[in-house]
């Protein structure tokens, strides 16, 4: 359980997240993931990183229960900073990152895949930001990298999800495969990337990041300010306390 790194093939690092039952990461889990991604990118033998997950879904965001147990703001601040570091670690990884998405990809999961260089998804994968139903805000920055602007807004305001097939139609998902074939398909794409010169692929990653029209780090940090405001106002606690109870705030 936790975050692990393996080397399934030459030039490829596989970073796997495993936090049962739904891969809702605690504060330390986000930092561990950031550390693993940065370490993999620094390895001179690695030319591509695959980010995957074990279990029912790719990522369910932050551990809401950890926040509910906290009587102050330590868990919120920790989650904000941890997510920021993990999302940035994907984006700033020195080599391309391929996200292998199975099942649900929600909340913080969108932050991870939105900053990835390529996405391979299983045919049961769904993507969305249920933030407004969780007393939070954030990761619209990253959802906007996956779908057109107006669809991003509608998905955000309604907390609805989009399927892997829909994202494939928008061009943000590279390939959709049966769940049993997901890991293999992601590794196949990673292997094609890993055939490139290691120095040159690092230059390519830095160059492409440099021409991005939006500074994803600053944009996401701006969003986080509203998350904290929602908590200070008390509305976040009121909405968050309905989590898992089938109630509306």
UniProtKB/TrEMBL annotation:
Gene3D superfamilies xref list: 2-enoyl-CoA Hydratase, Chain A, domain 1
Keywords: Lipid metabolism, Lyase
Keyword Repeat: no
Sequence similarity: Belongs to the enoyl-CoA hydratase/isomerase family.
InterPro entries: ClpP/crotonase-like_dom_sf (IPR029045), Enoyl-CoA_hydra/iso (IPR001753)
One Pfam family in the UniProt entry: ECH_1
The name this protein goes by in its record: Enoyl-CoA hydratase family protein
